[in-house]
Amino acid sequence: MRLRFPMKSAVLPSLVVFLVFLSQFAVGIRNIPGRIPGFDIGQFVEAPEYRNGKECASQSSNRENFVSSCDPSLVHVAMTLDSEYLRGSIAAVHSVLRHASCPENVFFHFIAAEFDPASPRVLSRLVRSTFPSLSFKVYIFREDTVINLISSSIRQALESPLNYARNYLGDILDRCVDRVIYLDSDIIVVDDITKLWNTTLTGSRVIGAPEYCHANFTKYFTSSFWSDPGLPGSFSGRKPCYFNTGVMVMDLVRWREGGYRGKIETWMQIQKKRRIYDLGSLPPFLLVFAGDVEAIDHRWNQHGLGGDNVRGSCRSLHKGPVSLLHWSGKGKPWVRLDEKRPCPLDHLWEPYDLYEHKIDRAKDQSLLGFSSLSELTEDSSFL
After folding, report:
1. Which residue, 9, 131, 241, 336, has most beta carbons within 10 Å?
2. Transmembrane residues, as ranges (predicted)?
3. Does residue 376 sit within a domain?
4. Euclidean distance between CA atoms 70 and 76, whole angstroms
5. For residue 365, is pLDDT > 60?
6. 10 Å Cβ neighbour count for 47?
7. Residue 95 lies in a domain
8. How far apart are CA 352 and CA 158, in angstroms?
């Protein structure tokens, strides 16, 4: 419809400016996937549609547009969602769907910080625009739940309240969710997530994770911890091994019944008074669970690819097969790729990146001489 105004109207210039602005705003909402008006958190292209195969039909045939988180056929995955690590989270979700045997049976539980620059509603809209058919729910994590328990860490990023959200999954997620896979935002999955989901937690074990018993366990705690006459006794009767909390299978029924949130918070309170560790949210998990973890194959957490917590230097893969790559440490692949200083393994993350404004890295990748995970793992210099 054409609008007509008297040419001599005093309001014409203002109206024209307003209509031009309004039309641009409306086009932005309708035609630009992943852009959220009012907050510049980047632009993401819409992911391909990943549908269930015939072997999954019996599980999803009765589903319409709404999927309840209480559906017993679902694989539950919990992740945090914030503006700083958003690009990593989107890539992680993309990788899970791309390799899942039944992608429509995966339900994502996103934990968003209450005071993130991008509100939970904004983040939810972005996820929906990027993955239109994804089954997910966004929960608000109240930072005051944990803020007074957090002590300073070796790296400031480890002090974020959202880093501690995994401690509260038993309270945050719907009560009907009795089991969940927790994943960090700096991972990609290159195998069927159902295999990890099917991990059996034997006996009364609450969590499962890859263990690394060759690691020097003592370095995760300060000398004041080990010299204390009583604190080291918390490991009595256990053979504690290091495990990384970025990939865990969690039995939430046993978690809730055992009061494990409270046990972790108790150690955080001791830390505030005694300074018994330096590494943020990991040590309390080690204190509560180390030595009583269901050991999962190392292929499910090829961690440390982000280097250490200070320099973020390049790392190589551990020996053996790979199902999940984890850029734990200071260096993140999207940052290093954009700065044109990538590590070789960062190029394995790149195919899952849905951020539209990527820097052209084709030349860098061709110079690297590798194009796939198989080529990297076949070259002995990366093992």
Report:
1. 131
2. none
3. no
4. 10
5. no
6. 21
7. yes
8. 25
Note the Cα 310 to chain centre separation in Å.
21
Rounded to whole angstroms, the Cα distance separating 134 from 117 reads 24
Q: Is residue 38 part of a domain?
A: no
Say whether 80 sits in a helix, a strand or coil: strand
Of 333, 310, 331, 294, the closest CA to residue 92 belongs to: 333
What tokens appear for 162 in the block?
A: 């959202």
Task: Work out how many domains the chain is built from and give that number.
Answer: 1
**What's the pLDDT at 158?**
63
Residue 100 has phi, psi (to 5 degrees) of: -75, 140
Per-residue pLDDT, averaged over 93-118, amounts to 95
- Which CATH number characterizes residue 164's domain? 3.90.550.10
The answer to whether residues 253 and 178 touch, using CB atoms and an 8 Å cutoff, is yes
Q: What percentage of the chain carries pLDDT values higher than 90?
A: 66
| Residue-level pLDDT at 25 | 35
CA gap 16, 101 in Å, rounded: 53
Instruction: Supply 210's token pair.
Output: 């890859």
Decide if 249 contacts 297 (C-beta within 8 A): no
As given in the structure block, the two tokens for residue 38 are 């009012």
- What's the pLDDT score for residue 154? 60
Q: Cα–chain-centroid distance for residue 131?
A: 16
C-alpha torsion sign, points 333, 338, 339, 340: positive
Contact 78, 180 (CB under 8 A): yes
For residue 34, being part of any structural domain is answered with no
* Residue 257: count of CB within 10 angstroms of its CB: 12
* Alpha-carbon span 115 to 23, nearest angstrom: 31
Could you tell me the residue range of the domain that residue 214 belongs to?
Answer: 75-302
Q: Return the DSSP state at 156.
A: G
- Give the Å distances, CA to CA, from 118 to 81, 108, 172, 311, 355: 10, 19, 20, 29, 17
In the prediction, which pLDDT does 43 show? 84
> Does the CA dihedral 353-356-362-367 come out positive or negative?
negative
pLDDT in tens, 145-167: 999 998 876 656 567 899 999 99
pLDDT band at 2 (very low <50, low <70, confident <90, very high): very low
